[in-house]
Design goal:
By secondary structure, the protein is mainly α. Helix content is about 85%, strand content about 0%. It contains 13 helices and no strands. It is globular. The mean pLDDT is about 85.
């Protein structure tokens, strides 16, 4: 069943991306929601009866709904598309395979971020520190994922531009950057304000360590959103060098923080490295892709807003980090055990 999931999941992702490519992200969202509900219904009945295989069955049903429903949708929007793929073209296969390999390299670098971080934290603080990091990171990442999901349809929109000199490309980049700026501040504030409530729900008290970790990660993940438009533009145009380098730079900064900061600051030094790595990756993505697409003047016009919002985010996260102990104490008074 797991092997089958490994085969059908990329198909489901590809079909979903194809619907986005037809600029119908609304239909794709409805389809994915229906598929998730179908998987949930199967899980309710299958897991109590078969255990873990029941969960795999629910996942398979969810992906099957995406594949079947998505293909039916594509047949209505793509002329000449039959019930099964029947034609194979070497040029298209070569182009898409090379693009997929580059994307997989980026995906692999992204996947290495969490294990590398947790390994470094475990070296200094043990499994307890890893648990605190997981709790703090999950909040920031989940809030940020809402922005990523909402902006994913920009990839085919950027791909439609013939070149970065296309006025459509520059206009789309400007609008996306304004949205990313607003989203970065929103993600930071939501993450900071939700952290004490999350502690109360998950831990029955507000943890000073969780608040400090959360403040650092909110800073890193929210500031990293400033580079999202250029990151998606590079993905849409198939120019992925700077995206790969940004992920690599995050890992390098985390490793450096482990070496130089962990001896003095312990596991918190590693988390400082994560936040710093995300900010460095943000700079690498913006600077590199702005040069590649020859849009440095357009980005320069957006820079004052990004710097101002970055300072506001840094101030809010810094205040949370500095006052984490006092905030935890206040909540302990308001919500005693």
């Amino acid at each position: 069943m797991v092997a089958a999931l490994m085969l059908v999941t990329p198909l489901a992702i590809g079909i979903s991306a194809s619907i986005d490519g037809r600029m119908r992200a609304d239909i794709r969202s409805v389809l994915v929601s229906i598929a998730a509900m179908s998987g949930l219904v199967v899980a309710i009945f299958a897991i109590p009866r078969w255990g873990l295989p029941g969960f795999a069955l629910a996942q398979a049903v969810q992906q099957a709904v995406v594949i079947g429903g998505g293909w039916l949708i594509l047949r209505r929007h793509v002329a000449g598309l039959g019930w099964l793929p029947t034609q194979w073209r070497h040029a298209i296969f070569k182009s898409t395979t090379g693009y997929a390999l580059r994307l997989n390299v980026i995906g692999a670098l992204g996947l290495l971020l969490e294990p590398l971080t947790k390994y470094c934290i475990n070296l200094s603080g043990g499994t307890a520190a890893v648990g605190i990091y997981e709790l703090a990171a999950r909040l920031a990442i989940q809030v940020r994922s809402l922005v990523i999901s909402a902006t994913t349809p920009l990839i085919p929109a950027f791909a439609m531009a013939k070149a970065s000199s296309d006025p459509y490309f520059v206009t789309l980049l400007h609008r996306a950057q304004r949205y990313a700026n607003f989203a970065a501040l929103t993600v930071a504030l939501i993450t900071l304000f939700a952290a004490p409530l999350m502690c109360l729900v998950m831990l029955d008290h507000v943890s000073e360590e969780v608040l400090r970790f959360n403040a650092l990660l909110a800073l890193g993940w929210s500031v990293n959103l400033f580079s999202l438009p250029l990151y998606l533009a590079a993905q849409g145009q198939g120019l992925l060098r700077w995206n790969m380098l940004s992920h690599a730079s995050i890992g390098i900064v985390i490793a450096a923080a482990t070496i130089f900061l962990m001896p003095q600051f312990g596991s918190q030094g590693v988390v400082i490295g994560v936040a710093a790595g995300l900010i460095v990756g943000n700079v690498v993505t913006i600077a590199g892709n702005a040069t590649t697409f020859a849009v440095r003047p357009a980005i320069a016009r957006e820079l004052p807003a990004m710097l101002a919002l970055g300072l506001i985010i840094a101030a809010a996260c810094g205040a949370m980090w500095a006052e984490a102990g006092q905030i935890a104490h206040i909540f302990d008074i308001w919500f005693p055990l």
